[in-house]
Design brief:
Elements (H helix, E strand, L loop, with lengths): L5 E3 L2 E3 L11 E4 L1 E8 L5 E7 L6 E9 L2 E8 L5 E10 L4 E7 L5 E6 L18 E3 L2 E5 L3 E3 L5 E8 L7 E11 L3 H6 L21 H8 L30 E5 L2 E5 L5 E2 L1 E4 L8 E3 L21 E4 L16 E5 H10 L3 H15 L4 E2 L14 E6 L7 E2 L9 E2 L4 H15 L8 E6 L15 H8 L5 H14 L2 H8 L24 H29 L4 E2 L9 H10 L3 E4 L5 H4 L2 H7 L3 E6 L19 H17 L3 E6 L30 H17 L1
Parallel strand pairs: 10-12, 19-23, 19-31, 23-24, 24-27, 27-28, 29-30, 30-31
Antiparallel strand pairs: 1-2, 3-6, 4-5, 5-15, 6-14, 7-10, 7-15, 8-9, 8-14, 9-13, 11-12, 16-17, 17-18, 20-22, 21-22, 25-26
Helix pairs in contact: 2-3, 3-4, 5-9, 6-7, 9-10, 13-14
Organism: Fulvimonas yonginensis
InterPro entries: GH
Protein name: Beta-agarase
Amino acid sequence: MKAIACMLAGLAIPPICSASVAGQVTLTHVRQGAVERLPGGESLRRYTFQPAARPQLTLHGDWRGGELRLRVQNAMPWAITVQLDLEGEGGAPLHATVGLPAGPVQTLVVPLHATSPRAFGMQAGPPMPFRHDGERVVLATTVEGGGGLQSVHVLRIAVPAPQAAQSLLLGAVGTAPDATLRAAYAGIVDRYGQYRRGDWPGKVQSDAALRAAVHAPVAPRDGARRTDAYGGRLDVRTDATGWFHARKLDDRWQLVTPQGHPFFSLGVNAVTDDTGRSYVEGRAWMFEGLPPAQGAWAAFHGQADSRGQTGASAGLAYDHGRWFDFYAANLYRVDGTGWREAWCRRTRARLAAWGFNTLGNWSDEALARGHRLVYTRSINIEGAFGNVATGYDWWGRMPDPFDPRFVQAAERAVAKATAGVRDDPWLLGYFADNELAWAAPGPQGRWALAIGTLRGEPHSAAKQAFLAMLERKYGDALKLGVAWGIGVTRWEALRPVGFQAPLPEEAHPAIAEDYQAWLRAYAEQYFRTVREALRRHDPHHLFLGGRFGVHTPEAVAACARWCDVLSFNVYADLPQHGLDLPALHALDKPVLISEFSFGSTDRGPFGTGPVAVWNESQRGQAYARFVRAAAADPVVVGAHWFQYADQPVTGRLLDGENAHLGLVGITDIPFDGFSTAAGKANGAAQDTR
């Protein structure tokens, strides 16, 4: 590497790059300080970013290579968010945001091309800093922009909207070959599926330690209330129908057990032994000590097709082929060939000790059926029927309920879901699908399903139904054109694929009125179709709704009409911050929170899920606040945690999610602080209801 001097505001900087560098610097709401010599002899200059919308420092030079490298020290006792913008030759500008931790001097590295953890098969990248080639490195794992820059001429370093002055010490800047990005992901997972570079309470280093931790007895819950056989409160009694049902008692909605007692559903999603699967094909270099695919370990290796074309899997690499199940392999290490039966016994005991009374969606019914545990089932409607794109489409496009093939698929799905359980009193009820794309993000997202319907193919059953509705109202297409403020005089103008329907506006209120009518009709058709099929196959059990992730008022109202319970996946600190509870009170229908969770990054997996808390102890506090608020609301009849075990460090098969959300880790070792806090909160919730 050539020894070429670099200058930063008059400071001689040790060489990193192999190209000439100009020393011009521009300061905007940034105060330049003195050069400071650090222990070890390195010199850096202090820059203080003042309270402003975007204080920034701009460097001009000519840096060529695969990654930009900047010596920097956060001079504050807390982490600082730093934004970096790079401009140069060979591609579009690049943008990165990094959290710069407090501590000693470190090398900040930005790859000179767009990248993200999705390029490595996961949704969240490894924590920073990490040690590489003897230095402390903070890598920008997400870089937005074009395909890549051949050289950088402008580097902007900004601190977004600081509320107080924030100081950084800056030193050498330059480029080097693009090697740090791969190094950040190399060898990150050990043979137990744990993150290798971190340490935390409960991390295991040997099979003996694993067995001891998993087999540690679980203390029974203190002060557990006596209940009926299903977990209902004995101090209140209403009609016993022999099935779970919903009833309003003293102005409060309640689930009622088959024996006639109120029941607040405290559930856990994905209580199953196959949640530890992660793709290894093409990225074996990320894993150390991966067991062979022969002998006893062959049972934990498998093959899977591509994740599919959904918004959740868009841009994910390493999305097919060989996978390894770290969670199940650890269960085998603990209990040998009888691991599955042992896991079922252990898991049932844990759930009871922690105050959970329901198996949530995607759980293994072997835990419940025949073992006095309430469970749920999902109606998964699949088939070759039409669909509508809303632009959200996280799990795929919206099913077209006007398509006769959808009606047939719903009948098949309901028949499959009800098979063998229609006479089981321990079944709470059925969900229909999961997080359908009823809306899209943004202020106009409410109308996405209406606009997407009109954009569809002429043969779309939904589009034909929408146009028929409009024709019945207006008769003449010219009247529609006037009402919507568009130049339409013939109905044929709306039929071609790609028709650009207008957004609602104050000057033309008919647009919103017509879209609302369509959204109601669409949701009515969907929920009525499922409800009628369900009642043909199972007249007893509850229809628990559609597990709304995104929704519109029209969809919720239709669900309230056809479903026994409204279900929502709520990712917020409190239920009232994720739900419009006054509107739900007006609908006067019971509400089940079918998913919620809180995650942190101090127990191995890199992600937190949608709602992050600072550390593990705060997960328990957040759980208690959420469940307390849910139990206090008169329409909420339960809350189900997502999920039982942590997701794999390198991402689950479905969509690369890799968050710390579990009651137990990938090793099946409980997070004792969290599970204890959850148990106390669950007991209090039962008392509240």
